[in-house]
């Protein structure tokens, strides 16, 4: 009978009680658990809010995406197909906000003989 169909959606975890990671709940790519591990291991504070590693993972993910986007734009401008450390350095120093944030940072060349 057509009216007797089950209303359950396939593939849905709704109602099943399956645990989801904090990374999945926050829709992030950077691991929230690993960020929390690093914060606790570093002894930066005696107490740690449950939302602190989630927020920090989101900030790290945003900064990484922004730097890679700008470095990709630099690669397209210079006619290259790959993002090199040199292009990352150019992208960071050509952006006013990132230049101030990464002012004292050195981006090293891992393999200087390859091009």
From TrEMBL:
Task: Give the region (Disordered) as residue ranges.
Answer: 1-22
Where is it mainly found?
nucleus
Subcellular location, in the record's words?
Answer: Chromosome; Nucleus
Its cellular-component GO annotations read: euchromatin; nucleosome; nucleus
Name the domain of life this protein comes from.
Eukaryota
The UniProt entry, under SMART domains, shows: H2A (SM00414)
Tell me yes or no: is RNA-binding among this UniProt entry's keywords: no
Q: Name one GO biological process term.
A: nucleosome assembly
- Keywords, comma-separated and alphabetical: Chromosome, DNA-binding, Nucleosome core, Nucleus
A GO molecular-function annotation = DNA binding
Q: How does it assemble?
A: The nucleosome is a histone octamer containing two molecules each of H2A, H2B, H3 and H4 assembled in one H3-H4 heterotetramer and two H2A-H2B heterodimers. The octamer wraps approximately 147 bp of DNA. The nucleosome is a histone octamer containing two molecules each of H2A, H2B, H3 and H4 assembled in one H3-H4 heterotetramer and two H2A-H2B heterodimers. May be incorporated into a proportion of nucleosomes, replacing one or more H2A molecules.
Family that this chain belongs to: Belongs to the histone H2A family.
Q: What is this protein called?
A: Histone H2A
């Amino acid at each position: 009978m057509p009216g007797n169909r089950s209303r359950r959606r396939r593939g849905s975890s709704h109602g099943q009680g399956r645990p989801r990671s904090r990374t999945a709940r926050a829709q992030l790519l950077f691991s929230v658990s690993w960020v929390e591990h690093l914060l606790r291991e570093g002894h930066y504070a005696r107490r740690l809010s449950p939302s602190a590693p989630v927020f920090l993972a989101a900030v790290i993910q945003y900064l990484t995406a922004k730097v890679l986007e700008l470095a990709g734009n630099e690669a397209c401008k210079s006619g290259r197909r790959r993002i090199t450390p040199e292009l990352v350095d150019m992208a960071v120093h050509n952006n006013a906000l990132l230049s101030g944030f990464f002012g004292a940072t050195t981006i090293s060349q891992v393999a200087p003989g390859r091009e």
